[in-house]
Structures are given as C-alpha cells and as structure tokens.
C-alpha cells in the first residue's frame, strides 16, 4: 500500500462526506475511523477533511493541481472498495501534475 504515502504528492486536498447516523454511510464512517490516523501520519501536511452532514450520500473527493476535482460516490461500497476508490483517485493525480 505504498500509494498511501503518495497522497500528498498527487493531491492538494482530500474530503470525505458522510452522514453521522445513516446506514448508507456506515462503511465510510468505519473506513475513516480505521484509516484516518495512518493516512494523516503518512501525509501530515495534506488537508484531509471529514465533512459530516445529516442525510448526505457518502462521497470521497480529491482536489488536484489547477483546482481540478474528482469525486466518487461511496454508497454500497465496503471498506476495501472505498480503499480501492481512494487509491484510484491518488493514481489519477499522477497524470494531472504540471
């Protein structure tokens, strides 16, 4: 999982949107609880924002250079699928570098 240390090289910001109580956000909440510390330790200067809002669909957003953003809906994904979606967003940032 060497890609986890590449977040700060390929992304300018990472946002996770979740509902605090909905079953649809349960896997995304579990992913944040299990992985936030590790991701932040490997990428201490990268803003990793957790945005909680009642009734919101769970989403993962990456902001790259030049204000380019890409998002992924997390509804129905398990933790390993969420991890894969994050990895794909990180790898997508490699091609967007100036």
Describe the structure.
This protein has 98 residues and is α+β, with helices and mostly antiparallel strands. It has one domain (2-94): Glutaredoxin (3-Layer(aba) Sandwich). It has helices spanning 7-10, 26-42, 79-94, and strands spanning 13-18, 48-52, 59-63, 69-73. Strands 2-1-3-4 form a 4-stranded mixed beta sheet, with helices on one face. The longest helix has 17 residues, at 26-42. The relative contact order is 0.26.
CATH topology: Glutaredoxin
Indicate how many domains the architecture comprises: 1
Helix content estimate = 25-40%
- Percentage of residues in strands: 15-25%
Coarse morphology? globular
The number of distinct β-strands equals: 4
Structural class based on helices, strands and sheet pairing: alpha+beta
User: Which residues form runs of ≥5 with pLDDT under 50?
Assistant: none
- Name of the CATH class: Alpha Beta
Order of helices and strands: HEHEEEH
Provide the spatial order of strands within the biggest beta sheet: 2-1-3-4
Instruction: Tell me the quaternary state.
Output: single chain
